[in-house]
UniProtKB/TrEMBL annotation, chain A:
Cross-referenced Pfam families: Alg14
Coiled coil ranges: none
Organism of origin: Corchorus olitorius
GO CC annotations on file: UDP-N-acetylglucosamine transferase complex
Gene3D superfamilies named in the record: Glycogen Phosphorylase B
Main localization, broad class: endoplasmic reticulum
MF (Gene Ontology): N-acetylglucosaminyldiphosphodolichol N-acetylglucosaminyltransferase activity
Cellular compartments annotated: Endoplasmic reticulum membrane
Transmembrane stretches, start-end: 17-39, 54-76, 132-151, 171-189
Family: Belongs to the ALG14 family.
Keywords associated with the record: Endoplasmic reticulum, Membrane, Transmembrane, Transmembrane helix
GO BP term, example: dolichol-linked oligosaccharide biosynthetic process
Stated name of the protein: UDP-N-acetylglucosamine transferase subunit ALG14
UniProtKB/TrEMBL annotation, chain B:
Residues of the Glycosyl transferase family 28 C-terminal domain: 13-166
Gene3D superfamilies: Glycogen Phosphorylase B
Pfam families (UniProt xref): Glyco_tran_28_C
GO biological process: dolichol-linked oligosaccharide biosynthetic process
PANTHER family associated with the record: UDP-N-ACETYLGLUCOSAMINE TRANSFERASE SUBUNIT ALG13
Organism phylogeny: Eukaryota, Viridiplantae, Streptophyta, Embryophyta, Tracheophyta
Gene Ontology, cellular component aspect: UDP-N-acetylglucosamine transferase complex
This protein's name: Glycosyl transferase family 28 C-terminal domain-containing protein
Cross-referenced InterPro entries: Glyco_trans_28_C, UDP-GlcNAc_transferase
SUPFAM superfamilies, per the entry: UDP-Glycosyltransferase/glycogen phosphorylase
GO molecular function: hexosyltransferase activity
Length: 235, 178
């Protein structure tokens, strides 16, 4: 009787050991993969057919952010970054409108019928002035919505320049890299409004090494964050 | 500019813009006699305020030889036209308004809103003020800034350029340089 109990315990222990070993292996694999992705992030793409266009996600923010982004888009070769997906906060009606005007002007000047651009709205994690406490819940909702949009888009290039909405999108792009759903290159241009300190979005993407290339517009920031590229003013 | 021969003052408009924000402190400061007198003394004839989401309405006035004409509106799709028509621009610290004004070569006073939770915007205004592209003020010190400003000492702003970023992005993605 006593022996039976012992052997049962043994068998139970053995099973538990197996599960634990399995879990440790999985975690180890994920960790190694994350470390690989972090190591690989920031290294230029090489094995790629050079003329193949890349699907591009462009994260827009209200006010100055969109103006800066459009200044950048003006000088990027449109045929290389195509199709283009624009995302702006659901509370922000102006930015997508500006992006539409920009895309229409492209279509007019190039004479190409039908533009390879899509425009989407996303819930914001935090409105200007909202407290950090209630931000937790709204951030979760924003995250779920961001995941849905990202599954649909699966971009190869992400361009963002400061609004908080880019954080969930960039984190998901990073997770896609880890899981192997889609490899993407994330470019972050810190807003011209940031002279001495990075924005929270910028700081997160810099510190977590999520951004492949990180651009700043003022020399003071380059001195503080040496991995950033100083590119002068975009405006 | 200056006064016309027949004694009729040429129209010199001060355009105030707060963008999509609420900046009652600035509108209140503009509504004080102190600021209006100072603007009149500096030769301005009209004060036009774009007050955004603010809830403080300034007192309208038709204006005459001894007082400033004051008018306001909340939003407009033709901010650019108002900027172009202005002799002096007073703006909130949003980068959009700042650079739109600087590109038009208009003299600019940026008033920093100290009520914003994440008040990073003063950084840009202060940096550009140090580089002599504009004046930077707080609502309480606006009249002093207007009294003491020397618009001739402001330096024109040369617009920036996004090609360095585009080059780096293209190189990173393995696109050939052109």
């Amino acid at each position: 009787m006593a022996q039976k109990v012992i052997s049962k315990t043994h068998r139970f222990c053995g099973k538990r050991l197996l599960v634990v070993t399995f879990l440790i292996t999985i975690i180890a694999i994920i960790l190694v993969r994350i470390l690989y992705v972090i190591w690989r992030t920031g290294k230029p793409l090489s094995k790629r057919a050079p003329q193949q266009p890349l699907s591009t996600l462009i994260v827009l923010g209200s006010g100055g952010h969109t103006a800066e982004m459009i200044n950048l888009l003006l000088v990027l070769q449109k045929e290389r970054f195509s199709p283009r997906y624009y995302i702006a906060a659901a509370t922000d009606n102006m930015s997508l409108q500006k992006a539409r005007v920009f895309e229409n002007s492209l279509a007019d000047s190039s004479g190409v019928k039908g533009i390879s651009a899509e425009f989407m709205q996303i819930y914001r994690s935090r409105e200007v002035g909202q407290s950090y406490v209630t931000s937790v819940w709204t951030t979760l909702v924003a995250l779920a919505h961001a995941l849905w949009l990202m599954i649909k888009i699966r971009p190869e290039v992400v361009l963002c320049n400061g609004p908080g909405t880019c954080i969930p999108l960039c984190v998901i792009a990073f997770i896609f890299k880890v899981i192997g759903i889609r490899w993407s290159s994330i470019f972050y241009v810190e807003s011209i409004a940031r002279v001495k300190r990075l924005s929270l979005s910028g700081l997160l993407l810099y510190k977590l090494r999520i951004a492949d290339q990180f651009f700043v517009q003022w020399p003071q920031l380059k001195r503080k964050y040496p991995r950033a590229h100083y590119v002068g003013c975009l405006m | 500019m200056g006064e016309a021969e027949d004694g009729l003052k040429p129209k010199r408009v001060v355009f105030v813009t707060v963008g999509t924000t609420c900046f009652d402190k600035l509108v209140k400061a503009l509504d004080t006699q102190e600021v209006k007198d100072e603007l009149l003394r500096r030769g301005y004839t009209h004060l036009l305020i774009q007050m955004g989401r603010g809830s403080y309405f300034p007192t309208k006035s038709a204006g005459d030889d001894k007082s400033l004409a004051v008018d306001y509106f909340t939003f407009s799709s033709s901010i650019a036209d108002h900027l172009r028509a202005a002799s002096l621009v007073i703006s909130h610290a949003g980068s959009g308004s700042i650079f739109e004004t600087l590109k038009l070569g208009k003299p600019l006073i940026v008033v920093v809103n100290e009520n914003l939770m994440d008040n990073h915007q003063s950084e840009l205004a202060k940096e550009l003020a140090e580089r002599k592209h504009l004046y930077c003020a707080r609502p309480q010190t606006l009249h002093q800034t207007i009294a003491g400003m020397d618009l001739g000492s402001l330096l024109p702003y040369s617009p920036g350029d996004a090609t360095p970023v585009a080059k780096l992005i293209n190189r990173f993605l393995g696109f050939p340089e052109d």
